């Protein structure tokens, strides 16, 4: 009997220790109401034994995209710093791809997104990783939203798997995103390509995490229904609607009224749609750093709208 009592006491102590370990830390910069809703939801997940998964879009959701996407800046920076000095066939072909991308102009469209992968084809994963990491350190360091870093720290405290989805080339983003959030680079999922004999190719592995492809990427690569999903734009609508719990929208646009091609969002701005759907709408500061010179500007790619907090 004494032994059974000792075991029972031990289990109670372990349970209390587990519950004590899962303590919510307030997110500075967000309202008490938002914090209360997130804390209440996370506390409700403590007894769950299933996989607890949270999925977030990358640019504009976890770090700043003003004035330009890091994926674009890294490519145009590489072209200016490296390719323009070369006369070989491969370098000229890559510059032709960039010219095609500039002419396209729609840097959230699937052809443009696919051309980012085509541009990097022929480089090793290590070379692509370095291109992305160097661009991050030179032009984007300090642009990760502190509120989102605090949120993700809380999710890890509560036993969540944290996944980041991006339409940008996966290898380009994995190192710096994984480093910022303290997650495995495997949990940073982007546009994938076939790697053959240690070299990347232009063969794209679907689905690309763009528009409805983000929802399909959750099913294909993460293989779990997320309890929390966060995004910022029209392109994240399908992914956010995969959430079985919290839906979080960062800096949603409240200017452009979406058209019939935007499905359920037609007739709404991004903000008004998610207000209707009961999502948590949060603000993070995203403005241009006037001290940073962006190569993308010289290539005449459109700027993203600023979101001062």
Key traits:
309 residues, alpha/beta, Rossmann fold, 45% helix, globular
Report on the structure:
Helix 11 (270-277) links the parallel strand 6 and strand 7. The chain has twelve helices and seven strands. A seven-stranded mixed β-sheet has the order 4-3-2-1-5-6-7, with helices on both faces. The chain has a single domain, classed as HAD superfamily/HAD-like (Rossmann fold, 3-Layer(aba) Sandwich), CATH 3.40.50. With 309 residues, the chain is of the alpha/beta class. The model is unreliable at 4-17 (pLDDT under 50). It has helices at 2-21, 32-44, 70-81, 89-104, 110-120, 125-140, 146-157, 170-181, 212-222, 237-240, 270-277, 295-298, and strands at residues 53-57, 161-169, 188-196, 199-205, 228-231, 246-250, 280-282.
- CATH architecture type: 3-Layer(aba) Sandwich
What is the number of E strands? 7
Provide the CATH superfamily.
HAD superfamily/HAD-like
* Total helical elements: 12
Distance from N terminus to C terminus (CA atoms, Å) equals 62 Å
H/E order of the elements? HHEHHHHHEHEEHEHEHEH
Q: Which regions contain 5 or more consecutive residues with pLDDT less than 50?
A: 4-17
Strand content: 5-15%
Morphology call: globular
CATH hierarchy, class:
Alpha Beta
Radius of gyration: 21 Å
Supply the helix-strand structural class. Answer: alpha/beta
* Tally of discrete structural domains: 1
* Helical fraction: 40-55%
Largest sheet, spatial ordering of strands: 4-3-2-1-5-6-7
Largest sheet: 7 strands, mixed
CATH level 3 topology = Rossmann fold
């Amino acid at each position: 009997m004494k032994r059974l009592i000792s075991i029972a006491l031990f289990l109670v102590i372990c349970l209390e220790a587990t519950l004590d370990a899962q303590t919510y830390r307030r997110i500075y910069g967000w309202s008490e109401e938002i914090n209360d809703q997130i804390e209440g939801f996370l506390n409700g997940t403590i007894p769950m034994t299933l996989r607890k998964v949270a999925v977030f879009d990358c640019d504009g959701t976890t770090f700043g995209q003003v004035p330009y996407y890091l994926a674009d800046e890294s490519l145009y920076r590489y072209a200016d710093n490296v390719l323009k000095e070369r006369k070989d066939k491969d370098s000229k072909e890559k510059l032709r791809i960039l010219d095609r991308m500039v002419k396209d102009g729609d840097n959230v469209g699937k052809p443009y997104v696919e051309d980012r992968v085509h541009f990097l084809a022929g480089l090793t994963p290590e070379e692509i990783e370095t291109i992305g990491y160097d661009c991050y350190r030179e032009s984007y360091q300090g642009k990760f939203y502190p509120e989102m870093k605090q949120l993700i720290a809380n999710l890890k405290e509560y036993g969540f798997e944290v996944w980041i989805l991006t339409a940008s080339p996966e290898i380009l983003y994995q190192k710096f995103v994984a480093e910022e959030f303290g997650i495995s680079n495997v949990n940073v999922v982007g546009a994938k390509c076939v790697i053959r004999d240690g070299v990347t190719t232009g063969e794209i592995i679907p689905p690309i995490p763009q528009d409805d492809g983000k929802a399909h990427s959750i099913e294909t690569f993460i293989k779990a229904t997320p309890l929390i999903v966060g995004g910022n734009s029209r392109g994240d609508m399908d992914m956010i609607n995969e959430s079985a719990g919290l839906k979080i929208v960062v800096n949603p646009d409240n200017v452009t009224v979406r058209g019939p091609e935007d499905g359920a969002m037609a007739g709404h701005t991004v903000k008004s749609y998610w207000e209707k759907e009961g999502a948590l709408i949060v603000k993070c500061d995203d403005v241009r750093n006037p001290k940073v010179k962006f190569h993308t500007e010289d290539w005449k790619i459109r700027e993203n709208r600023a979101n001062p907090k």
